[in-house]
Fold this sequence. Notes:
alpha+beta, Aminopeptidase, 2 domains, 7-stranded mixed β-sheet, 12 helices, 36% helix
Amino acid sequence: MSLRVQPISRDEHLAFVEGLPSASHMQIPSWGDVKPDWRAESLGWFDEAGLLVGAGLVLFRPLPKLKKYLAYLPEGPVVDWFAPDLVERWLEPMLAHLKARGAFSVKMGPPVVVRRWSADAVKAAIADPGAHRLRDAEATSYEPRAFDLADRLRRAGWQQTEPGGEDGFAAGQPRHVFQVPYEGRSLEEIHQGLNQQWRRNIKKAEKAGVKVVRGGYEDLSAFYTLYTETAERDRFIPRPLPYFQRMWTALNAEHPDRMRLYLAHHDGDVLAAATMLTVGRHAWYSYGASTSHKREVQPNNAMQWRMMCDAHELGAAVYDLRGITDTLEDSHHLLGLLRFKVGTGGQAVEYLGEWDFPLNRLLHKALDLYMARR
């Protein structure tokens, strides 16, 4: 029998998520407040006994001049992805509900891991002239059920979104991320897992007098100054300052410690800044920024280590450094960022990626062409 899918209140949604070890920060009610160009709805899946067994944050983006919407569930929904009757029992009622809501296309991002590569495996892959992308290197572990899930989605008419651009960063959420597992590890063990360069740089920053402090809403402007410099240097389009201010207000209104800001100071200068998000036992380094000025005092390593320590103190099971490129070419401008993250001694993780279901093929195709031109 299909589950019943219907809108739920923010409180019901939040209570469901808080009963889990973790969920994506993009699948909590407050994330809808961060995205004012989208209309947000909390969806619930109910079983025969009326029990809430799944939840999802849906963001609706209207098509200009038409009352039709793209329905997007970033890194969600939070359902039983390995249920044998996933398509019929969980996904079909969701599609029916979203179609009735005016959706012409549905995009979702199953939070399902496919492969993991240890830090050593990634380092070996970078050094191997025959490996051009992460998938060319032997993974340290696989999730066989993920391949079965991908087959079932394809057979049901879902289409896997190909990562956009040369760097593997799609227009949606990153398919490849870098994570440091914390479960059952002491802080000393996590420190030992850092490579020599990282440990040296943390010590160097300490000796140079770098101080990492937590900031508040009023410090977002200092973060933003560094962020725009980083955007120019790393060739990406920066988000506007009000985005981060809205993020701070919305997320911390839901939970007082949902979003943190860290700043690395040295002799009166702010050299680096970053935001950290926490949901349950999952902590994310979400946005980072730094200046090219005084790089020799290693503010980035000092700041990351402080965030890693704080995440451990909060009881995190994983510290997530978010997106990495899956391109291993020496000439690639994002390879330096991958090397930096590999120094934490964590793992490169590949998720199942994002999937589309065209409810109206003509409008879906028109959206594809529009996105390609952008």
